Amino acid sequence: MTRDEQLAFCKKCLNRKMDFQKGIVCSITGEQATFQGDCSDFKLDETVKEELNSVDPIETDTVIAQLSDDVLVNLRSEQNFGMALTSGIAVGLAGAILWGAITVATNYQIGYMAIAIGAGVGFTMRLFGKGIDQIFGISGGIIAVLSCVIGNFFSIIGFIATSEGLGYLETLFMFDFAYFIPVMTETFSGMDIFFYAIAGYEGYKFSFRVFTEQDLASLK
Questions:
Q1: Which stretches of the chain score pLDDT less than 50?
Q2: Up-side HSE of residue 118: CA atoms within 13 Å toward CB?
């Protein structure tokens, strides 16, 4: 065991004492801890509160499994699927428009935009939805992927408008959507699958409400 691992026990033991030269030592031996695994002299100091993590999030499924039905009912009453859906779609559409504009301006498709869209959709749905149910994650993932598809489509429209000397909206309204799938298939690449998958994962993962160990303890 490392010194830090031993101190995790010593700091909560009734037999601890402070030595100004050695730090925390055992009051029985007068020395720093040397045990491995368990200490036979360990006695829990009930007055010491265990430090809870207030930063790292816990998996939503883990949170749900540890909370009572009454607490879960209260948390679900705070959910707002309508706001989550509306805000997620709005951010996804804005990201798609931005993706199209950047791609046309740089004449280069930046796949990392998909990652930004997935994260943006997920975090927005988390903020406005406060969701703990699967429907939030599933919706976030679907919106993220569809936003990426739309972003690619907007890029195509932008390139057509540029090559034909037409306005962007004019080209969009003139486009025959019967050719949507053939056009998207023609411009699709293997890397698109990779970035779409990341965007979908982020849209799913980030759409849930976040709880830390500290939050979980207060809810219990």
A1: none
A2: 24
